[in-house]
């Protein structure tokens, strides 16, 4: 772990891992889609609408897992000052926001035919909306600071404060009466979903996760390059103050 | 008989495809742009101190 604190070594590792995880994710999603559309049966109550579950649930898991990853990175920034910890946080935030948005939209598209409404202010839906807003706040805070190191510390504190929402999202269906159904995969006593639907779901989730890892590594690689551009732009501006520093505005 | 909710299912899968495509394109275009900016700066003679010694990394 400490060995890859060196950004150059990390870039070398990322160059090899991004295509591997990308290919694994594409394969997982392709197999998952085949199982969803040609093997998995329709639900006895929901009919074919249950097919929305195979993207809604992995998106929800990734939305929460991504915030947990950001919280671990935040500890890395504040406690160990690991050079890649805030890079990891910054790269994860837009991915988490995208997957949480996908969870909200697909949930709405599933809710309308099954519940008769696009949205209700129940504890699960509201806490997931708060999670999405937390991601937006984190991204806004990153852009409010000129210096990435200062931004990293401020974002780390905000991320850790916001982490309180993750157990609320997870247990909201147990703590309150919600229209949203309770947990049916990761629960005490085992999954309540039939294997014919569980396996396609887990394979889709695996594919989504592999693509997420590839995108996170790609985002970290881009953030390291962005910081190099910023540093070189500042050096160039110091050396030749009259020359235009074209790279700087884009290098935040 | 086709499922009466096909439109909802198709919309959900299209949304997922758009999110994946958007994230992949964003990462790829950003990478290309940053590599270009870095190359232009290096052409102008800007070098990091740690890049003084040639390395095998990216």
TrEMBL record, chain A:
This is Heme exporter protein C. It is a multi-pass membrane protein. Belongs to the CcmC/CycZ/HelC family. Residues 27-180 form the Cytochrome c assembly protein domain. The gene is ccmC. Its main location: membrane. NCBIfam families: ccmC. The keyword Transport applies. The keyword Transport applies. Signal peptide: none annotated. GO terms for biological process: cytochrome complex assembly. One of its GO terms (molecular function) is heme binding. Required for the export of heme to the periplasm for the biogenesis of c-type cytochromes. It is found in: Cell inner membrane; Membrane. GO terms for cellular component: plasma membrane. It comes from the Bacteria. It comes from Alsobacter soli. The chain crosses the membrane at residues 21-40, 60-80, 92-111, 123-142, 154-177, 197-218.
From TrEMBL, chain B:
Keywords: Cell inner membrane, Cell membrane, Cytochrome c-type biogenesis, Membrane, Transmembrane, Transmembrane helix, Transport. Its main location: membrane. GO terms for biological process: cytochrome complex assembly; heme transport. InterPro entries: Haem_export_protD_CcmD (IPR007078). One of its GO terms (cellular component) is plasma membrane. Belongs to the CcmD/CycX/HelD family. This is Heme exporter protein D. It comes from Alsobacter soli.
């Amino acid at each position: 772990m400490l060995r890859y604190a060196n950004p150059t070594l990390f870039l070398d590792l990322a160059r090899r891992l991004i295509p591997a995880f990308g290919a694994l994710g594409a394969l997982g999603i392709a197999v998952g889609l085949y199982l969803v559309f040609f093997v998995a049966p329709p639900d006895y109550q929901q009919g074919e609408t249950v097919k929305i579950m195979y993207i809604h649930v992995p998106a929800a898991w990734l939305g929460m897992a991504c915030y947990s990853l950001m919280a671990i990175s935040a500890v890395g920034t504040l406690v160990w000052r690991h050079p890649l910890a805030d890079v990891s946080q910054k790269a994860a935030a837009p991915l988490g926001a995208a997957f949480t948005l996908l969870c909200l939209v697909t949930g709405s598209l599933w809710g309308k035919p099954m519940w008769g409404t696009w949205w209700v202010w129940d504890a699960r839906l509201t806490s997931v909306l708060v999670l999405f807003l937390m991601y937006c706040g984190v991204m806004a805070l990153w852009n409010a600071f000129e210096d990435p190191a200062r931004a990293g510390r401020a974002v780390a504190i905000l991320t850790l404060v916001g982490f309180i929402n993750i157990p609320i999202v997870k247990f909201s269906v147990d703590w309150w009466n919600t229209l949203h159904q309770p947990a049916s995969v990761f629960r005490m006593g085992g999954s309540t979903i039939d294997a014919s639907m569980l396996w396609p779901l887990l394979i889709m989730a695996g594919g989504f996760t592999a693509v997420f890892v590839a995108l996170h590594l790609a985002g970290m690689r881009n953030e390291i390059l962005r910081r190099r551009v910023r540093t070189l732009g500042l050096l160039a501006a110091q050396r030749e103050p009259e020359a235009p520093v074209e790279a700087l505005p884009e290098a935040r | 008989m086709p499922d009466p909710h096909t439109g909802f299912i198709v919309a959900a899968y299209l949304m997922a495809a758009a999110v994946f495509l958007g994230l992949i394109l964003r990462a790829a275009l950003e990478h290309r742009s940053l590599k270009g900016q870095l190359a232009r700066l290096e052409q102008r003679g800007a070098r990091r101190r740690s890049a003084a010694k040639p390395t095998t990394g990216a």
